[in-house]
Description:
Layout lengths: L15 H32 L5 H25 L1 H29 L5 H15 L1 H13 L1
Helix pairs in contact: 1-2, 1-3, 2-3
Amino acid sequence: MATTENISPKAQETEPVKALFDLASYWATIWGFVALCLWLEHRVLTALDIQSDSIQIAVLGASTVAIFWLTLNRVEKDPKARLIVDRARYIVILAAAVLLGAYLHATHKDQSYESHLRDGAVLACAEIAACKESVTQYANTR
């Protein structure tokens, strides 16, 4: 059985944020690879027209463990695989940040103070004829 202590990078104790980032990025990369493999396996099982959910769950469950341990052992023993994980982990973190940003943007309800000020200014300007005329004129010249 492989230990997971060897795959995480060695960080100095004076840099806890870097150590946390390194640890999180390695695990995110490994689990991202496992998820990608499972997605591909699911697509293959669907293409082979295997309709039984119990068979799909059994195949995917067994392959999850196998892929995880094989990936972990490969990264642990092979310097080239370790280099690939070192380079890929930044891409994985960037992809996760993009997905999180897209999710937050899609579900964001603008409740900020500035948003309320802007809405109030728009409503107030709509009530004042000179302001509304100036804004319309400004918008038409742009």
